[in-house]
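INFO  loader      accepted 1 record
INFO  loader      residues=335
INFO  predictor   begin
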Amino acid sequence: MSSIGKIRRLLHLLERLQSGRIYNTKELADFCNVSRRTIFRDIKTLQDSGVAVQFDSSKSGYWISTGDYLPPTDLTLAETLSLMLLGQEIGAAQQGGIPYFNSARNAALKLQSTIPNRLRQYVGELSAAVKINVEKQADLKSSQSHYESALEALTSQTKIRFQYNSLHDKKVIRTLVSPYRVLYQKRTWYVIGRSSIHRAVRTFHMGRIQESELTKDKFTPPPRFSLDRYLGNAWSLVRERGARTEVVVRFQPYVAINVSEVVWHKTQRMIWNDDGTLDFHVTVDGINEISWWIMGYADQAQVLEPTELIDLISDRVGRMAKLYHAKKKGNRSQH
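INFO  predictor   done
INFO  writer      dumping tokens
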């Protein structure tokens, strides 16, 4: 059996032994679907690794005291391993200083110290076999202090003052924010809260905060505020109020299966056509965000509804064609 298979069997064995009941070797062998000789070897491996597997001679069975080898978190060894592997992989994949992800790696290292020494070699083999690829993210190394200030403001219900490079306002603004939520989405962190300058709830990109300052002004968050209600049917983050629209996109067979395998939006509905194309139906609050997603599929996606979205993408495609046509003419003239 492979090393990974042995790890899995040892984890199952540990979970069963720490349940509080005493098991004889036949019961353990049947549970793990191996021979009794293999169970004896596995128990010896666990004991050599520092796990206090106890033998009850009166009942001819084995058991483990749950407090003997796990930290005081009541995590099973399997749960500890899962958190450790996820923390290692995700933390290692993040080099942009994103809060929580780097901390996940540190937590994984601490969890590793709770694993018995002799079992760490098995964990190393499992780590080498598991790979989690995470999408590229915004570089927030310089935003750590703003992130921490936002969390402190949120938990203490204290307003925070931002100096913020606003793409919407096309200038740097100063505003007093009552933070309601901190959200990780679209490869970066956001602060969502009521802005004094806008007199409305707004979304602030953590990486565009230039300065942050905690104030002594208290606020009371709305009791019925929720992210679902705030974002509504936005394709991602930008909800265009009063612009709810039914969108239908036809995807060609080359990408149709790929599109169908993902839950892109909570309202999506898919209809397969006899020619292998896929009609993707979705209800969104605004067409701008979804237009960029559609354009990412180039000539493999055709908007059927609404007319406004057809015109928007057609206009962008026309301007793209002019850019490439001009570039092509320039290259020819150089030759």
